Structures are given as structure tokens and as C-alpha cells.
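note to self: the first set is below, dont mix up w the second
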Amino acid sequence: MKMIGKIAKKIGNHISLAINDPEKFGRNILQITNPKLFEDRLLDIMNMTPMHIRLGSDTRVRLNVLDAAWTRSGMTGGPNTTINLALRIAKTGIPIRLVSTVREGDADNRWIAGHAASLLGEKNVPQVSVASAASRYSPLELGKKDIFIATHWTTAYQLKEILPNMPIRKFFYMLQEFEPSFYAWSSNYARCIETLHMDFIPIINEEILAQFFYMQPFCRFVGEKSEERAIIFQPAVDRDIFYPPKNLGNRPKRLLFYARPTNTRNAFGLGLLALRQVATDPAFAGWEFVAIGGRGAVPEMALGGGHKLVPAGWAGYSEYAASLRDADVLLCPMISPHTSYPVLEMAATGGISITNTFVTKTAERLEALSPDIIPVEASVEGFAAGLRAAAARVGQGVARVDRLNLPSSWADALEPTVRRVTDHIHRLAGG
């Protein structure tokens, strides 16, 4: 009873702090003795502090691209796609500002300039500034024609308090995943759904994902002419980075497992059980099994048949591409309507990708993207069958070629989107 009393007192103190100083509570919640006493992922809500802004008299048109924190280590597929789009909009003459909304990022102006050059493949890149709305002591100044792109549901939610005071109240919403499904039915789920009712212009990465959004009754842009209102683009896979190997040499066959156990939609458990089911199959005799997907994501694990799943070290972008070229098969579960970039990038190298279907992500659509994508049912048996089919294909010794039906450059993929976004910006700004 004494222990229960102590826990109750601690919870009461934290609730009081949440009411009186939510920002401090967001920092202190990490110290809670038993986080399971709280709703799962409550931290996401408590760390969603307001954006700190002040309104000025500036009348220049400017596009603010929002993220919880623009960081160097966070430049994965989704953020890089957003920045790539922003850079191409900047080339039209519209000023771009990358704004961290929850905490200070470490991607400063100088670093962003170098990163922009690598994304565009150009030396002379448009200037993009980095700013923060995360500190109450240094608020972000907004002018009369500032416009926003939300890149995650939390950044869209932060705009709720700001937009009623802004001359331009419509914003762009970069949708690269169906984010409500990141959560069980919960406070986070409800708030995420709430953002889909806001007044925004959707920019959707992938036609397959767009079709999934059209099926949801709570999305603002669902209904007649929804396809006209949404701005949709197909992702590019840069063939200067992802291309077939010239010669794999005499080395063991290698399977990569995109293993992210803390990211539930990557279905780590199903993939691991499927690997253990096939590890004793003679078709995989002598194969190497390597886990990729994050620094220290998984420990070394026994699979059976004398095989081990060995974690790869953290690699940069070019090293990651080289790891795909050096492998024969990629297993990438994804319980989501989005295809996942690794699936597409592996196919561009001529390797075999195994991933699951999901509602609008049908077998026919995946195979239309590339005959080197093996679509399976999201089950242990489905993934195991896909692995055996992949091993059989590798055993045939067919030369690897790029058969991916997607743009090979982001310039081609994003040019129509840039035109539509800039047209909307000029209309919203009144000229």
C-alpha cells in the first residue's frame, strides 16, 4: 500500500506539472518510474509543445517547412524527399525556411547547403534558411504572407493555434504515410485523424498511398474531384546511386532483413519467424543473413541451420546503396499502403525485394513497379514462401538489371508537383 501511495503521489505531481507547465512536463516525463502507467505513446502528445511565434509586418511570400527537429541523423527517405521538393520550389524564387517546431535541430545553414548539393546533384543550389519555433525566449517571426508545409501530423496539429491569426490559413500537408495507423485507437490516433479534417492542400507521395487516403471517410479531400485537389507524385530512385552491380564476384549469397523492431509497421516479428522457418532449407545453405535498418537495432540472433542474423553497422547513404548492390535478396515487411523506399531501391539494383501487400498495395501494383518485387501475404507463411521463391530465382544465376518502373531522377519526379505547389502559393499570396 505504501508503494502504491508513492506512485499515486508521483503521478499527481506529474499531472499538476502537465497542467501548469506542459513544456517542463514534456522534459520530465522521461523520468517517470513506470511509464506503463500512462497511455501508450503519451509522450508524443506531451512533447507536442506550442510553436513560439510573433507576428511581424513583413509582406514577402515565404514557405515554412515544418519538422519537430531538423537533424542531420534524421535525413532519411521521407525528410530527404520533403527537402528535395522544397529546394526545387526555392529554385523558382520562393524563399524557403526549414523550421524546427519542438526542439532545436543540429542541421544548420552551412550543413544544409552541403546536403542540398548532394540531394540535387548540383554545386550551385538555392539558399534555404534554417530557423526554430521551439523556444519561448526566441520566437519565430512570421509575416503577412508566410505559408506552411506540415510534414508530420504533430506539426499539422501545432498549426491549429497559429493559423486562425494568420492572413493565409490554408497550408500544405506532406503525406508520405497513413500516420493514424502508427497508433492503436488512442489520444494520438484521435488527434492525428483530427489533422486530416483541417483546411490543407495534400501533397501525397505515391499513387498507391493516395488511393488509400481516398478510401478513408474522415479525410477532408475525400469525395468528388479528390484526385484534382490532391497533388500526387511517384517517388524517384536515383540511378546514380542505386544501380546493378557490375560483378558480385565469388562470395556467399546474402539476404538483407530490413529490421526495425521498434517500428511496429515493419513487422519485425513476422519477418524474423519467417527467416527461422526457412533457415534450415537447403536452398539457403551457405547464405549470409544481415540485419539493416538502424544503428544497433537488433543483436546477433540465431536462426537455425547454423545461420545467424548479424546486424550491420550504421552506414551513410552511399554505403547503404552499396550494401543493396552486394546483396541478393531484401526482406522488407511493411504493414502499410506505402511501398517503402528500400523495396524500390533494391529493385533498382536488380536484386529481389520481398514485401507484403496491403489494401491498395496489391500484388498487381507491386509487380507493375518491378518484376523483381515479390509480393506476399503479411504472414509468417507468406514471407517464408516469398523467401523460398527468391532463393530459387537467385539460384538460376540470371544477370541483374534495373527493371524498376519509376523515375530515375527527382527532377523528373517532382517537376509537375513543383509547378502545382508554386501556383497554389501565388494564389494563396494573392498574386
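second set (the one i keep forgetting abt)
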Amino acid sequence: MVPPPPLTALEDLPNQMHAAGWAVLSAASLQALCATAPAAWAGWLPLWNDLPPDPHLRDGGGYRQRRHGSFTVAAGQVTPGPRRAHWQPVDYNALHGGYERWFEALPPGLDADPAWKALLLGLTRVADALRPTPCWYGEAHMFRIDTGGAGGLGRPTPEGAHRDGVDLVAVMMVGRHNVKGGETRVFDARGPQGMRFTLAEPWSVLLLDDERVIHETTPIQALQPGAPAWRDTLVLTLRQGGFQGPSATAA
């Protein structure tokens, strides 16, 4: 049986990120980091019921739905970015890298929600403790992985174990419904050391120093075959120097 994640106390977060390059915060710790009430994020739950299909799955699967947006954070201010393509180099994503992927935008009004801004500012403080920069370039991905794929499988990371080409990755668990699997695996990018666990608590978060670790999530299946089954996450990334793109500019 895959164990639950080892949780890091908020006061120990800087040391844990420095020592291991990753950490898991409980929902209560993440809410404390962001000075946000528990009910603030719960109001977002219906948004995951309105995610359009991912049109770019090269494995032919129909198991992923998503939305995407961008933002910058500088001097304590969050600024929504213009609609842009998501792009990763092939070195980081052999399956879907090397070309622009356009997705439907984040839900209207989300970027004006005070709880959204508080979440982004809280994560920026974590990134600043790793390697401070005057401006962070961020992307947000709302995912639903269901079991509509071949053989009743949903693949959270069809590209396999990978890095994202950013500085900080935050994988926020939104919810699991009628699923088994979805095991998270984190490995040291320089050696064989690794950890495996299952994120399950809504609004808990896995934080990754993307320069130091690689990560993946195993496929999901339905616990009760024939019934709807899904795994919902919010993935946020922060990067220095600009957004990823073919020209690697911040434009």
C-alpha cells in the first residue's frame, strides 16, 4: 500500500526545500502560508466540472481536461498575463515538447479573486526563498484526469518522469473521486534517491524545486468500474527570466 505523503511543518519548509528540493504541505499549512481561510478555495470546486478536453494528447488518449493561464508577480503585485500558448522544450517533455499548445483560458474572474492572489503570493514567497528574483513568470494549469482512456486508464503525466523547465512547481490536490492509483513519485535529478506517496487531502500541495528533482504521477483507474472516476489538480509554476517559449522571451 502506498503511504500518505510525509508532511513538512510550515516553519520547517525552508530547511526541507534546501535539503531535499521538495516538500508537501497540508491544507492547513498552505492556508497559513497564504493567510487564506479554508472556505476560500472550496468555492472553486465547481470550476473543475467545466474543463474542456485537452486537444494535444499525442498518445491518443481522451482522459485529460484542462484550462491554462499566465501571470507575473513583482513587488508583491499579481498581474494576469495575456493569453499565451504553453510551450516546453523537448528536453523537458519528450512527448509534448517543442511546439505551442493552446488551451482554453482560466475561468473568468478567477484572477480577480483575493484567494487566488493570496495563493500566488504565498507560492512566490517559497520561490523567493530558493532563488529570489524581481519578477516571477507564472503559469496555471487546471487539470481533470478521468478514466476514459484506453483500458479505463487516466494518465496524469503521460510524458513520464520529468522536469518542467521552471524554478518552482506546485501540485495542489483538489480532489479524488472513485479512483485508485495516482501515486506521486519524486526523484533526485542527480541520483537514484526517491520517494513515493499518494496525495489525497484536498488543498494540500507538493512543492518541487524543478532544478533539483524530477516527478511523475502513475495512472489512475476506477475503484468502482463503470462509475465516473477522476483526479483533479491545480498545477502552478514559477520561472525566472521570462515565460518559456520558442524565443525564450518574456514578451
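remember for set 2: Helices lie at 13-20, 27-34, 38-42, 114-130.
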